[in-house]
Write a structure and sequence with these properties.
Shape: globular
Number of strands: 12
Number of helices: 12
Radius of gyration: 21 Å
Order of helices and strands: HEHHHEHEHEEHEEEHHHEEHEEH
Largest sheet: 7 strands, mixed
Helix content: 25-40%
Structural class: alpha/beta
Strand content: 5-15%
Bound molecules: pyridoxal-5'-phosphate
Length: 356
């Protein structure tokens, strides 16, 4: 750190992404990527011609991608906002709606970036603890007199909140934006998109990184009534109007159009999740009910840390968080059937070694 950095930034704890080791090849179950490749149309769209067009700026209106997303969800392009990953949507939303005088309410255990953005933009967050069973105490998010941000389904707990409960939070905070981060909704959650036409304060945030197999393309989006989208466009156009590059735009349109491929990938992951969860339960693990592409799982004879380390030694990477309440647990991304078979085999070895 230099002596020039603003004090507010030197005090910040930046987001720590999951390991992305480049040294040896692991079975990578630590950052919730999709194990299946992007839709076939994506591969065909990235032609030599498309690459040669990189000499030109990208389309700052992002119109083709907005149209593809709007069509998929029965909305208009005016209801859609698109960014470089949904992290950017989250950042722009904090910038648009929260500051020192406009606080934000978030759960204590959720996506780590919410706290980072609160620090970055000098917003005082009200942090509400999850219940003992990691469910969201809905009543504590109702009528809170601040912006509300939460993930549904939540991470890393994997638990989904029913739509009726989400609606209670949205309806009880009519004077504040309620941001519902639906990064994992395609794996079993109930989306709040159907509430958009009734609630001018609802902002639904999504990503292409998980269910659309495009983590490396960096595409996120939000859906809301046009007035909220206008707010976010003001921020985007004051920061980076060319935030979606040409190749990602092509990739995103193709990935959004191919509903059959998308549904097939989601179904495969849901099926593999069920097998894996059953096998882990049989080995004595404690698991939450997952509506996501990952499992939140605690072994019963060793700590979360030990399990994480022993899996890593055996070439399988999962995510360990290590904070107090999460320390018994790891977060395991659902990979292919073959990858999960290896995870289960290594897990059996590790438990046998711990408890011969
Ligand atoms: C992965 C994830 C994101 C970020 O996704 P990107 O679009 O890759 O930036 C946002 N929110 C949650 C809850 C996530 O798990």
């Amino acid at each position: 750190m230099s002596q020039f950095l603003r004090p507010a930034l030197s005090a910040l704890d930046p987001y720590v992404p999951g390991e992305q080791p480049q040294d040896k090849s692991y079975i990578k179950l630590n950052t919730n990527e999709n194990p299946y490749p992007p839709a076939p149309g994506v591969l065909d769209a990235i032609t030599r011609e498309a690459v040669s067009q990189l000499k030109l700026y990208s389309d700052p209106t992002i119109a083709p991608l907005k149209a593809a997303i709007a069509q998929q969800y029965g909305l208009q392009p005016e209801n859609v906002f698109v960014t470089n990953g949904s992290d950017e949507t989250l950042g722009f939303s904090f910038l648009a709606y929260a500051d020192a005088e406009h606080p934000v309410t978030i759960p204590d255990i959720s996506y780590g970036f919410y706290k980072v953005f609160a620090q970055l933009f000098q917003v005082a967050p009200t942090v509400i603890p999850l219940r003992e069973d990691f469910s969201l105490p809905v009543e504590k998010f109702c009528g809170v007199d601040s912006m509300v941000v939460f993930a549904n389904p939540n991470a890393p707990t994997a638990i989904a909140l029913p739509l009726s409960e989400v609606e209670k939070i949205v309806a009880s905070n009519p004077d504040h934006v309620v941001l519902v981060d639906e990064a994992y909704v395609d794996f079993g959650g109930e989306s709040a998109v159907s509430l958009i036409d009734r609630y001018p304060n609802l902002l639904v945030v999504r990503t292409f990184s998980k269910s659309r197999s495009l983590a490396g393309a960096r595409i996120g989006y939000a859906m809301a009534q046009p007035a909220l989208i206008d707010d976010l466009e003001r921020v985007r156009n004051s920061f980076h109007p060319y935030n979606i590059n040409r190749l990602s735009m092509l990739a995103g349109v193709e990935a959004m159009k191919d509903t059959a491929y998308f549904e097939d990938c989601c179904q495969k992951i849901i099926k593999t999740r069920r097998h894996t969860a059953e096998a882990l339960k049989d080995m004595g693990f404690t698991l939450t009910e997952s509506a996501t592409n990952f499992l939140f799982a605690a072994p019963n004879v060793i700590s979360g840390k030990e399990y994480y380390e022993k899996l890593k030694d055996r070439g399988v990477l999962v995510r360990y968080f290590g904070t107090q309440r999460l320390s018994p647990y790891v977060r395991i991304t659902i990979g292919t059937e073959e990858e999960m078979a290896v995870l289960l085999e290594k897990t059996r070895e590790i438990l046998k070694e711990a408890n011969p």
